[in-house]
Amino acid sequence: MRPLRILRAVLWSFFGVRRRADAARDLEDVQPHTILIVGVFVAALFVVGIVLVVRLVMSTASLAPPAPVEATQAPAVGEPRQHGPIIVRDTMEERVRTCTICHGSTTQVSTDGFSPRIAGKPAGYLFNQLVSFRDGRRTYAPMVYLVQYMTDDYLREIATHFAQLDLPYPPPEAAPLTAEAASRARRIVEYGDPSRGVPACMDCHGAKLTGVEPAIPALLGLPRHYMNAQFGAWRGGKLRSIAPDCMAEVARRLAPEDVPALTGWLASQPVPAGMKPEPARPRDLPLKCGSVTALVK
Ligand code: HEC
Ligand code: HEC
User: Fold this and answer.
1) What is the model's pLDDT at position 263?
2) 63 pLDDT exceeds 80?
3) What separation in Å is there between the alpha carbon of 216 and the centre of ligand 2?
4) Buried-most residue among 51, 64, 67, 285 (CB within 10 A)?
5) Of 217, 239, 218, which Cα lies nearest the Cα of 228?
6) Ligand 2 pocket by C-beta < 6 Å: which residues?
7) 8 A C-beta contact, residue 275 and residue 120
């Protein structure tokens, strides 16, 4: 009977449950250090018991977690949406998925008419633009916000990714131009406007206007509204490139009424199949372009 009495004494001292005479008698009989040792042992048993009960409850209450879902595609219509951890593949394609909302993707080619297409442009050109948004030379707020904390190396990776993409082009836009305006635009593209010191667009953008590696973009396949906005920004000093800024200089030298003719004519030209920028060439440009020399040392 003694172990039981010790246990009872311990419980009484633990929980303060007293039965007057009984409790006092039990406690008198047992040594304090025995109460302590047995007390610690009982407490440990108590804790182990609680842990076991909690684990048992948890394992029966929670069902096995659903299999991870790969976040590549939304479920088809009518298919139940799975809830579970979403695993996004760590590829450049996934990281730049937001960009395709405005700049187009394989499934959604036409853009909003203002955001330029970026797929297939020379990597050096794209890199220069991303750096310009980050460093304040270009100011379109959503773009600045997206790239403002990115390093040169990461921007170069993004630029290379888009330069390698080969997406279909939207069809040419209808040109709202008189025949006279269209032929003037074509003349400037091919021969420039010597009376105002404007060089031929082809001298820099390539004989077929398909751009030249590494830093000069094509003039085909661009939305008219986008080009008009660019010319307005160059002329107003809102769009700058690395100095000397040849394109801003060309824009300022052009007669203002020639700008809509040029952009309308360019946007109405068909894009040759499989358009690629011309390879880099060692020829001098008619004006010095800082954005080209920054890449070709
Ligand atoms: C909200 C729509 C939107 C999103 C999202 C967006 N862009 Fe843009 N982007 C634009 C617009 C509009 C311009 C033209 C702005 C201007 O005129 O300066 C632009 C310009 C650019 C240019 C310069 C193109 C050229 O031909 O000069 C590059 C490069 C670019 N964006 C890359 C990206 C990348 C990379 C992402 C994703 C990280 C992205 N954009 C996300 C709207 C967007
Ligand atoms: C001296 C060389 C040079 C000449 C001449 C030139 N460009 Fe450019 N152009 C450039 C460079 C370099 C860029 C890229 C600008 C940058 O990096 O900021 C550019 C960019 C552009 C862009 C922006 C394209 C885009 O994807 O955002 C347009 C539009 C453009 N040029 C139109 C023209 C037209 C039209 C002419 C003829 C009137 C012309 N350019 C003549 C060098 C030239």
Assistant:
1) 97
2) no
3) 7
4) 285
5) 239
6) 116, 125, 128, 188, 198-199, 201, 203-205, 215-217, 219, 222, 227, 230, 241, 246-247, 250, 254, 262, 285-287, 289, 291-292
7) yes
Q: Which ligand is nearest to the CA of 144?
A: 1
The residue with tokens 């790969």 is 70
3 state SS of 87: strand
How remote is the CA of residue 229 from the centroid of ligand 1, in Å? 13
Of 205, 176, 175, the closest CA to residue 188 belongs to 205
Q: What separation, in Å, do the N-terminal and C-terminal C-alpha atoms of the chain show?
A: 98
pLDDT recorded at residue 282: 75
Could you say which of 1.10.760.10, 3.90.1720.10, 1.10.8.60, 3.40.50.300 is the CATH number of the domain covering 92-293?
A: 1.10.760.10
Q: Are 143 and 115 in contact (CB under 8 A)?
A: no
For 121, list phi and psi in degrees, rounded to 5.
-80, 155
CA of 247 to the centre of ligand 2 (A): 5
